[in-house]
């Protein structure tokens, strides 16, 4: 049975890392829910915008498969760029869509965890003051409606590159949101905080870049796997990422990559056929 994960939040969960900046992660044991079907994962996983790119989900799932080679992981992408915490209110469209997708996925998978990253849109005008209470309502409703009262809820922190340049300069209260996120994870059952310490941004100053998204995903996996908070960078995250990249691909994965190259105009039809 597929172990599935609901991905919710805003653009840094959806992913805006530049696709050309890191090697593709292709793993036939990592599936994504798209058009009502489980399909082999290809980035961008969470296609909420034409600028969608590398997210933390791929390295999270790949690290899982590296440690647990008998498992198949399913990703349920429901993040929405630019969304505020109010946009995720229980009676709102984003929340209802996530519930619908999760319920559909649960017909053919076991919902195993919820991955959350959100807060940039709430990092100004004192919105942090109500953040904890609003998030509590959302998490409780997710668990109650989906009947998963003990499901782990993994909460990513905001990058310390915020509040300085580009679009990120407007996130002047990101540290207050981080305090709320960490406090929430420390106080609520089955919730775990993942630090964004040392992660770097795209030139826009607000979106986690591709390589840092890879590291972020490894930290999310560490938090889930060990059921613990990850408060600093992992000492082994560079080594682990290198191992994931160096993994020998299966014939199905190699064919998938060739088909992608053909579709993108990087490989001729003759070479596609002759190399089979």
UniProtKB/TrEMBL annotation:
Family matches, as PANTHER family: 9-O-ACETYL-N-ACETYLNEURAMINIC ACID DEACETYLASE-RELATED (PTHR31988:SF19), ESTERASE, PUTATIVE (DUF303)-RELATED (PTHR31988)
Parts of the chain that traverse the membrane: none
Protein's recorded name: Sialate O-acetylesterase
Gene3D superfamilies per the UniProt record, alphabetical: SGNH hydrolase
Domain Sialate O-acetylesterase residues, every copy: 5-224
UniProt entry keywords in alphabetical sequence: Hydrolase
Keyword Hydrolase: yes
Pfam families from the UniProt entry: SASA
GO molecular function ontology, one term from the record: hydrolase activity
Top-level division of the source organism's lineage: Bacteria
Keyword Hydrolase appears in the UniProt entry: yes
